[in-house]
Every structure is written in structure tokens, then in C-alpha cells.
Amino acid sequence: MSKSNKRTIWICIIACILIAVIPFAYGSKHGATFGGSDDAGGELVKKNDSSYKVWTEPILEKAIGGELPGEVESLLFCVQTGIGVGILFFFLGRFVERKKLGKEDQEL
Amino acid sequence: MSTRLPKKQMWIVAASFAVAICFGIAPAANAMHIMEGYLPISLCVFWGVIALPFVIWGFFSIRKIVDNNRRTMPLLAMAGAFIFVISSLKIPSVTGSCSHMTGTGLGALLFGPAAVAVLGIIVLLFQAILLAHGGLTTIGANCFSMAIAGPFVSYGLYQLGKKLHWNKKVNIFIACTIGDLFTYCVTSFQMAWAHHSNVGFAKAMVTNMAVYAATQVPLAIIEGLISIVIILALENYATDEMKSLGFIEA
Questions:
Q1: CA-to-CA distance for A24 and A33, rounded, in angstroms?
Q2: DSSP H helical segments within chain B, as ranges?
Q3: Partners of B90 in the beta sheet?
Q4: Residue B227 contacts residue B172 (beta carbons within 8 Å)
Q5: For B200, phi and psi rounded to 5 degrees?
Q6: Contact A80 B88 (CB under 8 A)
Q7: Please, is A101 exposed, middle or buried when counting C-beta atoms within 10 Å of its C-beta (0-12, 13-18, 19+)?
Q8: For B131-173, what is each residue's pLDDT tens digit?
């Protein structure tokens, strides 16, 4: 990989970390709760259309008869991340390995 | 014998700690799609009907890509996995709430926007059924915003930038960032259209944009940056596959 591309990648990664961390660090000090924007969206529906009644609930919540516990929800989100990261870096690793072995003309 | 790690390895350990801390401190919260039951039945059907042809088009488009060149299969899996990863990470934003990125821009640039409709709907189904996030009744609306409108904008902008001979990295960044942001503008429109009886459509649109789109601005920038990283890695390590997709000129 060319030097300029390597530099670009590092700049991008550092910028991503800063963009995520700075609002959190600043916001936490100033009392931001960092709830989901769909929670805020739900509040907005009540305000903009007070006569609207939510007519169904998520299938999973129906099945377990209540809201999904926060811990279990974060577990399931981690499962989703894990599946994605596994596939993504399995193939990327194979591509890197192939290049190192000088077999780039071969199918993965 | 010294147990001190070589300098390069120390850097890798430090970087992995930095990433772990960043994700570790992100507070748990629901991120965002239109939730189950939050659209009237008529609009659920409307958005479903609009999204369906794109999903069918996407299915045939993927079949054609795979038939023409089986070597691109791993890249297709990676584009899908990228959406999986990116849309599961809830990141704090400047508005004081959390949201997640879409990750659909990358797939749209590599495989065209139609293919992403299929990849996107798989993720949406996973989230709707297993995570109580988004919903089965609102899947048409969510699919249209995340897996159709956003990717089409990304693809269109990238092609435009290519014609105007923009720098490739800048072009990828703009296409993926604006595509992500557009997804949430469409979500705002969908919500404002469905729910404006108290305040009128214009005001509902503005308030929805403030909730959904404003939160998304820094996240869209992150998505643009990550897309550049992935594409640079693929161009370097999967050069032949990227050439056969036409992403790199042969």
C-alpha cells in the first residue's frame, strides 16, 4: 500500500474516534443523556399527532410479554456486530494472506 | 529476558485499547428506524409496495453479478457484513442522543444501488425480529429510506463525481456521507408525512429533521471516512476483484 494511502487510513481512523468521543465527553459533562433518537422520535409523534395510537408492538416484545431487558438487547446488538466483523475480517484476512503469498491471480 | 514488546506491537496494543474504549463507553440506547406500529397501516402498505420492486430488482442484480463473476462473491459478503457491523454500532452525537450509521454507501458504490436493497432488508429483518428495533410493519418504509433512497443517492453522487474527475477519496467520502444523511432525511419525511395533524406538515418536517437528521451529521461523516478506509484496503488487497467489478480501471 502506498505511503499516502496509509496516511489517509490513519487520519480517517483518528478522525472517526475523535468525532465519536468528543460529543460524548462534552455532552456527558453538560447533562446529555444520549438516549436513542427513535425515543426522541416517539416523543415527537405524541406532540405532532396526539390522536395517534401505536397499533402494534415488536414481535419479540409480544413473544416475551414485555420490553426487552437492556442487557439482553446490548447482547443481541453485540451478536450482530460479531457476525458482521467475523465475515468482514475473515475475507479481508484471506485477501491479505493471498497477497502475501503472491497468489493474487487465484480465486479466494 | 525482557518482556517489553517491540515498539510496533506496542502501537497495535495501544490502538486496540483506544478502539475498545471508544465502543465500550458508548451508552446503550435504542438507535433509529421507524418503530413497530408508528406508521398507520395505509402507509405501511404504501412504503412496502414502493420498496418491493427495488428488492426484486436487487435480487436479480445480485444473481447477475454472481453469475458473471463468482470471484466477487467475497466482496458481496463483505459489503453485507459492513452494513451489519455499521448499523449495530450506536454512536453518541452532538445533539445529545445516539444513532447508528447505515453502511449502505459502500455496497452501492461497489455493486450498484439495487443490490443494496437486498443486503439492507436482511439487516432490517434481523433487527426487527431479534432486536425489537425497527419493525416488521414498518420494514417497507425503513427499507426505502435505508436500503433504497440512501444508496441511490450515494451511487448517483459517486458517478457524478467520477464524471467531474473529482479526487477518488473525496468522491467516496461525499457519496457515502450524503447518502447516509439522505437516509435520515427520508425517515424525517416519512414520519412528518404520517404525523402532522397538530402542527402541519412543514413544522413536523422541521422538528423531525432536528431529531433524526441533525443527530446523523457527525455519524454520516464517520461513515464516509470508514468507507474510504475499507475501499483503500480492498483496492490494495483485492485488486483483481475490484477490477472485475469495474471499480478500478483494468
A1: 10
A2: 7-25, 41-68, 73-86, 104-111, 113-130, 139-142, 150-163, 168-194, 201-237, 239-244
A3: B100
A4: yes
A5: 90, 155
A6: yes
A7: exposed
A8: 888 889 999 999 999 999 999 999 999 999 999 999 999 999 9
pTM of the predicted model as reported, rounded to 2 decimal places: 0.86
Nearest CA of chain B to the CA of A107: how many Å?
Answer: 6
How many CB atoms are closer than 10 A to CB A43?
12
For residue B204, the SS3 value is helix
| Helix (H), strand (E) at residue A82 | helix A70-100
Residues 31 through 90 of chain A touching chain B, CB cutoff 8 Å: 32-42, 44-45, 47-52, 54-61, 67-68, 70, 73-74, 76-78, 80-81, 83-88
- Gap between the Cα atoms of B70 and B79, Å rounded: 15
- Judge contact between A6 and B237, C-beta under 8 A: no
B144-166 burial: b if 16+ Cβ within 10 Å, else e: bbbbbbbbbbbbebbeebeeeeb
Per-residue pLDDT at B15: 66
